[in-house]
Amino acid sequence: MPYRVEELAARAATSVDTVRYYQARTLLPPPTRIGRLAWYGDEHLERLAQIRRLQGRGFALAVIQRLLAGELDHADEELIAAVASQAEASETREGRDSREPHGSGATDGDDRHEWLTIAELAERSGIPRVVLDAVVREGLLVPHRVSGEDRYSQADVTAAAAGLRLLQHGLPLPELLELARLHTVAMRETAERAVDLFDRYVRQTLRSEGVSEDVAAERLVSAFEEILPATLTIVSHHFRRTLLSVAQEHIERVGTDGERQLVVAAAERTP
Fold first, then answer.
1. DSSP helix/strand/coil, 246
2. Based on CB atoms within 10 Å of each CB, which residue in 65, 235, 241, 259 is the most buried?
3. Torsion (CA) 219, 220, 222, 225 in degrees, nearest 10
4. What is the rounded distance in angstroms from the CA atom of residue 271 to the CA atom of residue 121?
């Protein structure tokens, strides 16, 4: 059945502007034109429903465009959804943990995110807006895109407050920012190599086996969900141990006997 753009938008429970925006981004095929009139069909209605479904899974329009174009298949879709789900779960855990008394295990049962503007983040963390703006510009604080707007979570409040504690102990902001930049570069390089290893030895290996898309998707997501927490545990453990080892070596070189004893005791209390 042919539809005018207004009828299509109404049936899809969206706006005419959205339909035209999707068409401009090639998410929708062009309509059939008869004279000066543009007509849409059921395939356009189905495509709008598909876009809505993919958006509901947390996919950005750029990813949806690749899925619709056939550049990514069902297995990739499931992997992307698993990555988004893990990121969402991580934000929820960090935000919930930051609200609980240490070691209490208490929870209010509400895992929904409260998305914050950067002004609200400044108010919650106690860090001046101008400082947060500088940190965002340096790429050290990465916002979420929520309905096209930059937003922050309780996990960002916790991280920002931790940074404020460093400043309160007398560490200068410029040098902290430089240290954070160095860490970001090294961390991103490590993460890119880890993702490349996963792609080469897990994703591509599964594809070369010639299994069905459903089987490939299930095995790919299962492998990701097992490898991610193992990788995070190894990286976190290694960095913590390395930091304590370097601190201990430094105090042993330049510290007093009392300082050495305190650092050794602190290292022994840290698993």
1. helix
2. 65
3. 170
4. 32
Which CATH architecture group holds 5-72?
Orthogonal Bundle (1.10)
Residue 21 CA to residue 65 CA, distance in Å, equals 13
CA distance 3 to 31: 10
Residue pLDDT tens, the chain, 271 long: 788 999 999 999 999 999 999 999 889 999 998 888 899 999 999 999 999 988 888 788 888 888 888 888 888 888 888 877 776 666 555 555 544 544 433 334 444 568 899 999 999 888 888 888 888 877 778 888 776 678 898 888 888 888 878 888 888 878 888 888 888 788 888 888 888 998 898 888 887 888 888 888 888 888 888 888 888 889 888 888 888 888 888 888 888 888 878 877 777 776 6
CATH top-level class of 80-216? mainly alpha
* Contact assessment for residue 67 and residue 77, using Cβ atoms and an 8 Å cutoff: yes
